[in-house]
Design goal:
Number of helices: 12
GO molecular function: S-methyl-5-thioribose-1-phosphate isomerase activity
EC number: 5.3.1.23
Structural class: alpha/beta
CATH architecture of the largest domain: 3-Layer(aba) Sandwich
Shape: globular
Radius of gyration: 20 Å
Largest sheet: 7 strands, mixed
Family: Belongs to the EIF-2B alpha/beta/delta subunits family. MtnA subfamily.
Order of helices and strands: EEEEEHHHHHEHEHEHEEEHEEHHEEEEEH
Protein name: Methylthioribose-1-phosphate isomerase
CATH topology of the largest domain: Rossmann fold
Organism: Endosaccharibacter trunci
CATH class of the largest domain: Alpha Beta
C-alpha cells in the first residue's frame, strides 16, 4: 500500500542497514509516522507486547524476523529454542505468532548452526511474501461480495453506496500488506464501487479511530468513525449492508476470536439480518482447537488502557488523559469469541466458506484428520 505516493510494507529489512527489522510505530499513528529499527529479539518482543506492532498476521512475520535477529547473536540450538519461546509468549491469543515461530523452528532445527542466519532471513521473507499473496487473494474473493451488494442496490433503484461496518483494524498495517477485512474494501474502491465504511472506534486502544481511519483516509476511501456502541443502532435503521472484520484465531469449527466487542456486533448483525463476514488467511486457523469459548486463551491487558485514553492535545503533542475516578478498578479483556453460528461466512485466500468444520474442510481438505470435536 502507499503513504504519500510511496509504496510500503508493514515490515522490511535491507542489507544496507545490517538486516535490522523496520516497522512503523503503531502507537504513534495517526499523528506521527515513526519508523522503528529493531536489532535484537528483545526489542522485537517489546514492540509486540507494547503493540508498537500489532495485527495477527504482522506480529507473526515480525516475530519470525526477531528469531533471525536472535540467531545473529547466537545460532546454537539452546539459544535458538530459548529465544523462540520468548518471542512466542509475547501475546497469547493470536495464533499466527506461534505458527510463524513453529514454522521457523521446523526449518532451522534441520539447518546447521553456521547456516541458520541466512536460512532464517529466507524463511521470514517467505512468510512475508506468502502473507501478501494470501491477503491479496482474500481481497479478490471479498470484492465479489461487495459487488453483489452494489448490484442488488442498483437493481432496486438505490443510488446509495455500499455501507460496510468494520471493527478494530484489519488493514494493511495489521498485516504485511493489503490487510484482511480491508483488502476487499480497497479493491472495490479501486474498481470504482461506491462504498462507505463505518469505522468502530474500538475502545480501549482505539485502533479503528486511529489506524483504520488513517488507512482509509490515506487511500481515499469514504468513512465515518462511530462509537463502539453505535453499530446496532445503525443496523436497526438499515444503514449497514454488511460487516467485515478480521480475526486473531479461528477454530476448526468456525468460532472466531477477535478484538473485544466483535461478539456484540455479530449479535446485532444476526438480529438485523446483516451479513457478518470474517476475513482471514489460513495461518489464522487453529486446527487444534474446536471450542473457541472454552479453549482460546483471552489476553488480559493493562487496566491503564481502560482508565486512560491517549490522544493529541491542543499543542499537537500526544498525551494520556485519565477518564475514571481515582481508585477505580478496570478490567481489560482484549478479545472475545464469536460463535460460528453468528458468522455468515469465513473469507479466506481460497474463497468463502461456511463457519463450520465442514465449510473449512471443503476449502482445506488436506486438514481432514477425522476429528469431530
Amino acid at each position: 500500500m502507499k503513504i504519500g505516493g510511496e509504496s510500503y510494507r508493514s515490515v522490511w529489512v535491507n542489507a544496507e542497514d545490517g538486516y535490522a527489522v523496520h516497522i512503523f510505530d503503531q502507537t504513534k499513528l495517526p499523528w506521527s509516522l515513526d519508523i522503528l529499527r529493531l536489532e535484537t529479539p528483545q526489542q522485537v518482543a517489546e514492540a509486540i507486547v507494547t503493540m508498537q506492532v500489532r495485527g495477527a498476521p504482522l506480529i507473526g512475520a515480525v516475530a519470525a524476523y526477531g528469531l533471525a535477529l536472535a540467531l545473529r547473536i547466537d545460532s546454537a540450538t539452546p539459544a535458538m529454542e530459548r529465544d523462540a519461546a520468548m518471542l512466542a509468549e509475547t501475546r497469547p491469543t493470536a495464533i499466527n505468532l506461534r505458527w510463524a515461530i513453529e514454522r521457523m523452528l521446523t526449518r532451522l532445527r534441520n539447518t546447521l548452526p553456521a547456516d541458520r542466519v541466512r536460512v532464517a532471513y529466507e524463511e521470514a521473507g517467505a512468510i512475508c511474501d506468502e502473507d501478501v499473496a494470501q491477503n491479496e487473494a482474500i481481497g479478490r474473493h471479498g470484492v465479489a461480495l461487495i459487488q453483489q451488494i452494489a448490484e442488488s442496490k442498483r437493481a432496486r433503484g438505490s443510488d446509495e453506496p455500499v455501507r460496510i461496518l468494520t471493527h478494530c483494524n484489519a488493514g494493511w498495517i495489521a498485516t504485511v500488506d493489503w490487510g484482511t477485512a480491508l483488502a476487499p474494501i480497497y479493491m472495490a474502491h479501486d474498481q470504482g464501487t461506491d462504498l462507505h465504511v463505518w469505522v468502530d472506534e474500538t475502545r480501549p486502544r482505539n485502533q479503528g479511530a486511529a489506524l483504520t481511519a488513517w488507512e482509509l483516509g490515506s487511500h481515499g476511501v469514504g468513512h465515518t468513525v462511530v462509537s463502539d456502541n453505535a453499530g446496532g443502532h445503525l443496523m436497526q435503521h438499515g444503514k449497514v449492508d454488511m460487516v467485515i472484520v478480521g480475526t486473531d484465531r479461528v477454530t476448526r469449527n468456525g468460532d472466531v476470536a477477535n478484538k473485544i466487542g466483535t461478539y456484540l456486533k455479530a449479535l446485532a448483525a444476526h438480529d438485523n439480518d446483516v451479513p457478518f463476514y470474517v476475513a482471514l488467511p489460513s495461518t489464522t486457523i487453529d486446527w487444534s482447537v474446536g471450542d473457541g469459548l472454552r479453549d482460546i486463551p483471552i489476553e488480559e491487558r493493562s487496566a491503564r488502557e481502560v482508565t486512560h485514553i491517549v490522544g493529541r492535545d491542543s499543542d499537537g503533542k500526544m498525551a494520556a488523559v485519565q477518564v475514571t475516578p481515582d481508585g477505580t478498578d478496570a478490567a481489560n479483556p482484549a478479545f472475545d469469541v464469536t460463535p460460528a453460528r453468528l458468522v455468515t461466512g469465513l473469507l479466506t485466500e481460497r474463497g468463502v466458506c461456511d463457519a463450520s468444520r465442514e465449510g473449512l474442510l471443503a476449502l482445506f481438505p488436506e486438514r481432514n484428520t477425522g476429528s469431530t470435536n
